[in-house]
Amino acid sequence: MAGRGIATAFAYETGGPALTMDKLIICGGKPLRGRVRISGAKNAALAVLCASVMAGDKVVLENVPDISDVRDMIDIIRHVGSEVTWLSESSIQINPPPRLIADPPCHLVKKLRASNLFLGPLLSRFGFAKISLPGGCNIGVRPMDLHFKGLACMGVNISMEGGYAVGRAPSRLKGARIYLDFPSVGATENLMMAACLAVGQTVLENAAKEPEIVDLANFLNCLGAKVRGAGTDIIKIDGVPELKGCLRYSVIPDRIEAGTFLVAAAATRGSLVLENIIPPHVEPICAKLREAGVEIVENGDTLQVRADGPLQPLDIKTMPYPGFPTDMQSQMMALLSTVEGVSMIIENIFENRFQIADELKRMGVRIKVEGRMAVIEGVPELYGTQVKATDLRAGAALVVAGLMAQGRTGISNAHFIDRGYHRLEEKLQSLGVEVYRSH
Ligand code: EPZ
C-alpha cells in the first residue's frame, strides 16, 4: 500500500504523525496470530526524560519508545537547554543543560500532561520553575494540588500567574515528611525528583507504587541519588549535593502496550507471543483475563496468550497499582462487549473515562454508563463503521473493537493513538491484520 508507506515514512521523518493521514482503517474479524515485541514504557520514559535535566553529565537511555509524546518531551528538554541525539530507533543521548535556558514552551506543555513533571527537577536543580498548567483533558480535570502541597512542604513558594504555575525556592529545597492524600503517580514522581538535591531526608507516605515509579527511582539512583523504598507506599530520599551522568539506562517495557495486545489477542480469539515483558508488571491485567477464561503462559520475558471459544463476563474496578490499571479500562470495555452475559466496570481513578462508550455504541456495543459505573451486555458481534478517538487509550479501545468487528472500521484522530503506541500498524500487519492509514 504505497500511499500508507509514504505517509508513515513521512511521519517518522518529521517526528510526528502526518496529520493529513490521521485515520486508521482496520479490516476486522480475523484472529491475531504471531509474535510481537513490546516497546519501552511511555510513562517511564517521560518521567526519566524530565529527570535527565538534573544530571550533571551525559546520559544515554535505551528502550525509549519512538512515540509522539516522547518526541514532544524531547522538544521540551531541548527548549530548556539539553542537547538530545537519537543514537538508534530506541536509544538517545542527552547532554543536560549547564543552566536553565528557558521555561518549558507553553504550546508543548499544554499538549503533554506529563510536562508537569518538570516542576520537581527544575526546582531541585535551579530553584525556579515556570510551567503552563497542563490543563484538563478528556479523562478528567487533572489537578496538581498534591504536587503543590508537597513542594510547599519542601520550601517552595508556588504561585499561579496567568495560567502558569511558578515555583520559587529562596534556597535549596529542604527535606520533609509528606503524606499524599491519594497515591498520585505524578505527584510521587515530582516530589521524589525534587527531594534528590534537597538538604536532608524526604519521606513520601502513601506514595504511588506503579512500576514506572520504581523505574524512575532506579534511574535517579543511577545518577547518584539516594532513593529507597520505591514500589512500596513509603519512599525515603536522602538529598545529595549534585548528580552525575549515566552512560546506560534501559527503560522498562510498556505494561499498557503489552496489556493492549493481550486484550486484542483475547478479543479476536487469537494466539500471540509477546516479547520484552516483565510479567509481574502485567499480572493485574493477566489475572482478570485468566478469570475470563483466557490462557496466558509466562516464559521468562515472554508471554504466550491464547483464547478460543466463549469467555466469561467480568466485574472490574480500576485501582492504583497493583490494582487493575485505569489505562487498560477502555480496552477491556471493548473486549467485554461481545462476551455473553453482563460485565461491570467501575472507574475509580478518573472522573470522566467512559467517553469511549458512545463511539463503541456506534459499532453495536450495548452499554449503560451511570457515573463511575459502566454495565456492558454482551452482543454476538460488532460491526465496522466510522468512529473517532477522543484520547490515547480510547483510541486503543477502538483499535481492539475494529479488530473484533466484521467489516471495515475507520478511526479518525489516530494521532491520539500515536501518542503511546510505536509503529502500531506495522505490528498489527505482522500479526495478519489488514490495517492502513487514510485521509
Ligand atoms: C499518570 O497520570 C499516567 N500518566 C496516566 O497515564 C495514568 O492513567 C495515571 O498516572 C494513573 O495511573 C503518566 O505517567 C504520564 P495521577 P497522572 O496523578 O500522574 C488525582 C496514559 O494513558 N490527582 O496518579 O496525572 C487525579 O485527578 C495516561 O498513559 C489529584 O487529585 O495520574 C486523578 O483522579 C493517562 N491531585 C488521580 O489523582 C493531584 O495533585 C490519579 O492521578 C494529582 C492527581
What is the CATH topology classification name of the largest domain? UDP-n-acetylglucosamine1-carboxyvinyl-transferase, Chain
Oligomer: single chain
Strand tally: 23
What is the second-level CATH architecture of the largest domain?
Alpha-beta prism
Q: What value does the average pLDDT take?
A: 93
Radius of gyration: 21 Å
Strand arrangement in the largest pleated sheet:
21-22-1-23
Helix percent band: 25-40%
Number of domains: 2
Q: Can you summarize the main beta sheet?
A: 4 strands, mixed
Shape: globular
Number of helices: 15
Strand content: 15-25%
Q: Look at the structure and give the CATH class of the largest domain.
A: Alpha Beta
Present as ligands are: ligand EPZ
User: Structural class, from helix and strand content?
Assistant: alpha+beta
How far is the N terminus from the C terminus? 14 Å
Question: What's the short version?
Answer:
The protein has 439 residues and is an alpha+beta fold.
Structure keywords:
single chain, alpha+beta, UDP-n-acetylglucosamine1-carboxyvinyl-transferase, Chain, four-stranded mixed β-sheet, 15 helices, 25% strand, disordered N terminus, binds ligand EPZ
Structure, described:
With 439 residues, this protein is an alpha+beta fold. The chain folds into 2 domains: 23-39 and 253-438, Enolpyruvate transferase domain (UDP-n-acetylglucosamine1-carboxyvinyl-transferase, Chain, Alpha-beta prism), CATH 3.65.10; 42-241, UDP-n-acetylglucosamine1-carboxyvinyl-transferase, Chain. The chain has helices at residues 2-14, 42-51, 68-79, 106-111, 119-126, 145-153, 185-196, 211-222, 255-267, 279-291, 329-336, 356-361, 392-404, 415-418, 424-429, and strands spanning 23-28, 33-37, 59-62, 83-88, 91-95, 128-132, 157-160, 164-168, 177-179, 201-205, 226-228, 234-238, 246-250, 271-275, 295-299, 302-306, 315-317, 342-346, 366-370, 373-377, 386-388, 407-412, 434-438. The strands form 6 sheets. The chain has a 4-stranded mixed sheet with strand order 21-22-1-23. The protein has a 4-stranded mixed sheet with strand order 2-14-16-15, with helices on one face. Strands 4-5-3-13 form a 4-stranded mixed sheet, covered by helices on one side. Strand 17, helix 11 (329-336) and strand 18 (342-346) form a beta-alpha-beta unit. Helix 2 (42-51) packs parallel to helix 8 and helix 6 packs parallel to helix 7. The longest helix has 13 residues, at 2-14. It is globular. The chain starts with a helix and ends with a strand. Mean pLDDT is 93; it is low at 1-18.
